[in-house]
Amino acid sequence: MTDPPAESQRTARPDGQPREDGVKDVDRAAELRADLVEKLRAEGKIVSPAVEAAFRAVARERFLPSDVPLETAYAYDDAVVTKRDEHGVALSSVSAAYIQARMLEQAELRPRATVLEIGSGGLNAALIAEIVGPQGRVVSVDIDPEVTDRAAKLLDEAGYGSRVRVLVADAEHGVPNEGRIDAIIVTVGAWDIPPALLAQLADEGTLVLPLIMNGVTRTIGFRREGDHLVSTSVEVAGFVPMQGAGRHPERVFVLTDPNGKQVKLRFDSGVPADMSPLDAVLATERTEAWSGVTIPHRTSFADLYLWFAWHLPGFCLLTVDDGTELANERGTWFPFGAVRGGGFAYLAIRPAMEGAGVEFGARAYGHDRELAAMALVKQIRAWDRDGRHAEPVFGYWPAGTDVTRIPADAAVMDKTHGVVTISWPAP
Ligand SMILES: C[S@@+](CC[C@H](N)C(=O)[O-])C[C@H]1O[C@@H](n2cnc3c(N)ncnc32)[C@H](O)[C@@H]1O
């Protein structure tokens, strides 16, 4: 991911000026755009002619800071951060091409539709405008006026000014004066679904949002089924976090090793009531346990984290300081763990027998390290048996709906405004 200094404003590119390699920027951009579309089609992220046409029409570089190379603007999975807070945390970005394409497909947009985009930047709104056409309506809102000013200016310059309405608003409160919306595309990490947004969604409408579930995000395409929502598609992606009234800060618990270096355990919710048994745990002996579950090299196992987030009590994400034992062993573990009593375990891998890729297991510290390691290994095996072979189905039941109708095989996670459910189809 490139990291431009700040919200640098794009002025007109030197179109017509040859680059050092003698190729005009505008020609190079067209070439890269065509390559990107081919790649997105080949990877199955673009499947419809409408999304393909939009990607062929919109000049991505017009919406990126001027110091971003064309190759980055047309990269498959490079997000470009356009604003950070004082601690360096990304607040706004132009999303990667693959996830923009995928979310547009998930939203199943139609010509003439009214579409609400949460989180502005200009680029995605321009793509939406291309798909819904001149008789459609695009409303793009952002909580940050600096972002909306920039997006409105860039959209104007690119010729979309009259087709996209850009507003400052907190998604939590919806956009009450904009009427019924056919599709809502949320481009910021959401911990819950704001009731005000849901109230504006047409009965036949689609909602696409990156939903954070116990620290793990899935971009989910939802449709209504009576009084609740059911997922129609799922994608793996990360987003900048929601600000404003719907913000949900994580809880961080710091473990310090004998050299004063830190391992941070990041909990979404459900922090174990008493973390004191973990004091000085990094100075204790470590154990490991192996699951017998293997995976070939270069195969995604992102759903294992999702499984943990739903089924492993005490689940947390890890961030480690350089100089810790964990940092020195990078490549042999992944930053997902769990706390069990006085034990802390995290996901580890080792080469599998006979070139079968890697085997999953757990390493663990603390008084209850055996317990913590075995709890993690148990869930690796459960995922292997019940989760790894099929894409899960999500539901969202707003507060007030009859949750007794939630299917018995679904796991349930409480949110502020409702509950999320997950079920894993039988292998
Ligand atoms: C990933 S960026 C949006 C990218 C954009 N859709 C594009 O064209 O690539 C996420 C944006 O969400 C905005 N945001 C964060 N919290 C919000 C909220 N509660 N309501 C509206 N916008 C919010 C941020 O200010 C940020 O600009």
From TrEMBL:
<dbReference type="Pfam" id="PF01135">
    <property type="entry name" value="PCMT"/>
</dbReference>
<protein>
    <recommendedName>
        <fullName>Protein-L-isoaspartate O-methyltransferase</fullName>
        <ecNumber>2.1.1.77</ecNumber>
    </recommendedName>
</protein>
<keyword id="KW-0949">S-adenosyl-L-methionine</keyword>
<feature type="region of interest" description="Disordered">
    <location>
        <begin position="1"/>
        <end position="26"/>
    </location>
</feature>
<dbReference type="InterPro" id="IPR027573">
    <property type="entry name" value="Methyltran_FxLD"/>
</dbReference>
<comment type="similarity">
    <text>Belongs to the methyltransferase superfamily. L-isoaspartyl/D-aspartyl protein methyltransferase family.</text>
</comment>
<keyword id="KW-0963">Cytoplasm</keyword>
<dbReference type="InterPro" id="IPR000682">
    <property type="entry name" value="PCMT"/>
</dbReference>
<feature type="compositionally biased region" description="Basic and acidic residues">
    <location>
        <begin position="10"/>
        <end position="26"/>
    </location>
</feature>
<keyword id="KW-0489">Methyltransferase</keyword>
<dbReference type="InterPro" id="IPR029063">
    <property type="entry name" value="SAM-dependent_MTases_sf"/>
</dbReference>
<keyword id="KW-0808">Transferase</keyword>
